[in-house]
Amino acid sequence: MRQDGWIREKWPHEAEDFTPWLKDNIESVSKATGLELSSLGREVRAAGGRADIVAWEAKSKTKVVIENQLEPANTRHWHQLVAYGESLEARIRIWVASAFDRKFRRLVSETNRKEAAKTEGAVYYLLKIDRKNEDNDQVFLLLELGPTPAQLERVLYTEDERVKNTKLIEEFWNQWGRGEERYKSITHFKIEYVNAVIARKVSMNEAEIDVSARVFRGRRQRNDRGAVDIYSEKLSTDFPQVNRKQEWQYNETGRNILKIKKPIDLGEIDSWEEIRSWFSTTEAKIRSKATDRKWVNWEEKQQLKAEMERKRREEEERWQEEQQRYQEEQKRLKEEEEKERLKVKRRWHLYPLVKKSILDQRREKKDLANKRHKRGLLWTTWRNENKANE
Fold this sequence. Notes:
Layout: H1 5-10, H2 14-24, H3 26-33, E1 37-46, E2 49-57, E3 62-68, H4 75-88, E4 92-97, H5 102-115, E5 123-131, E6 139-145, H6 149-157, H7 161-174, E7 184-191, E8 194-202, E9 206-215, H8 224-238, H9 244-247, E10 256-263, H10 272-291, H11 298-389
Parallel strand pairs: 3-4, 4-5
Antiparallel strand pairs: 1-2, 2-3, 5-6, 7-8, 8-9, 9-10
């Protein structure tokens, strides 16, 4: 069996076995490096791939990228570590493998030296997977190479405290999937004539939820204070620690604000889930109280909705009948118009024939008259001649 064959026996698959184990045992990485690490996520998207483990370092308040592999170190994993670190802006980058060649130790040592010349350079650690002896299955990580104390001091303590706090707040929202909103998350919902907005805010020592409301303006004007009281009283009853008379602020725009605060310590990474749970639970309670008014007359609204739907259907049927009658009338008119047009067309088509027939009749009558006239003249002449002979 190879010297590191026991590694494959313990973790058959790197992504499915070793990476989850390393994330759950992040304290072993902390012990080997001397850092205060808290695990944030596994298989985090970065630089077109997925970083094995992303953690948080308490002193520097910066992200840590951990690239792990069960085989001896290779170039592919080194490039992945650099790319993921740059993409996630992680100033501490840790490489875990079963063995490191001399070329990788020299490469990491040279990289740490070059990064030390930068204002916000990164530091690299090499950790080897090892165990005490063949009979003992206790696994630990052995530090093969790391930054010098001066390099580590520069990463941990050179940033201004305000900048560190800002990064920590930003990372809190990023880990919640709301990185694009940075420092707050806003949701909207509507009740009656009120448009309500819930905003989450967080600082290093306080979590805060702000509720604001604006009354809709339309044909029916409503009193701002009365409309907002639809749910402001319910909120105050449900959150007795809030003094509504002092916290609710009325102004000319009709916007009212209720602040609910909770003291926290954002530097405690382990408390992040509790803070997020408080945000979600409190917001759900606010939405529930705010929408109570909306569903008081739910049945009446359903009946009104059904009545309106019935009237709409009747109106639609009546309109369809009118349309059908109109189409039938248009069709009848069109048929009559077509008949008249054909009559006119036929009349104009027969006119030349009729005219010719009339002219022919007149001509025949005239010819007949002429013949009769000539015959009469001939008879008169013959008679006169006979009389003369006698």
